[in-house]
Amino acid sequence: MTAPPFLTDALLTPTSHGFFGRQGGVSSGLYDSLNVGLGSNDRKENITINRQRVATSLNAQCLITGYQTHSNKVSEVLTADDKPEADALFTKEKGIALGVLSADCVPVLISGSIGGHKTDIIATAHAGWKGAIAGIIENLVTTLKAEEVHPDSMKAIIGPAISQAAYQVGINVYEKVIAVDPSARELFLPETEHEKFLFNLPAFVKTRIKAAGVMQISHLDICTYLNPDTYFSYRRATHQKESDYGRQISAIALT
């Protein structure tokens, strides 16, 4: 088996984790090649192989992803058979890789400690602008604190996502975001000729992580839209009038 390439962040070391792109899989066409999105129209057998490659790369027995709906729902994963309907997941079980599917939205990986000496709980969050203003990050961190995770032990990594330069939004998004956080005005660059804004979504998610009380944060500042050979992008596929798009994954595991 060919191991797919992935990025890691030193902040999460030695916890097993990876930010995977679109390379190293078996899918073809629009889904070339490491498409892991069960919601796509790719061949299911290809998706299954791709997901297994991700799990194997992280030395995990299985890979669990949530049914993501831009919600603020958080779910605990207990077994390899769980099928959570949530945009944030956490587990204390070894051998289970938790993954975030994305194709422009912000993936977040979190590790923490209950015992105080080593990482014994991990979590993921899928944060588009809707989920971010709905409180997906805050709900996840609150849940982890309820699990008695030491706040100072929590480490959060923001993975590849659409950059401000490529993320044009309308006045409706601007108004909804600043209604939640007025200071977020500085994260919008106005494009007056179009009555649009360029929104720095990853920076907004970072502010939500900090507001939730997590101080150890790192950001892989990589744009999914502007790197077509490396990452899938929903917005790029839409602009190119493609019929569908693949999803990449960011994943973390206790091994």
TrEMBL record:
It catalyses: adenosine + H2O + H(+) = inosine + NH4(+); inosine + phosphate = alpha-D-ribose 1-phosphate + hypoxanthine; S-methyl-5'-thioadenosine + phosphate = 5-(methylsulfanyl)-alpha-D-ribose 1-phosphate + adenine; adenosine + phosphate = alpha-D-ribose 1-phosphate + adenine. Keywords: Glycosidase, Hydrolase, Metal-binding, Transferase, Zinc. The keyword Cell membrane does not apply. SUPFAM superfamilies: CNF1/YfiH-like putative cysteine hydrolases. The keyword Manganese does not apply. InterPro entries: Cu_polyphenol_OxRdtase (IPR003730), Cu_polyphenol_OxRdtase_sf (IPR038371), Cytotoxic_necrot_fac-like_cat (IPR011324). This is Purine nucleoside phosphorylase. Transmembrane segments: none annotated. Belongs to the purine nucleoside phosphorylase YfiH/LACC1 family. GO terms for molecular function: adenosine deaminase activity; copper ion binding; hydrolase activity, acting on glycosyl bonds; S-methyl-5-thioadenosine phosphorylase activity.
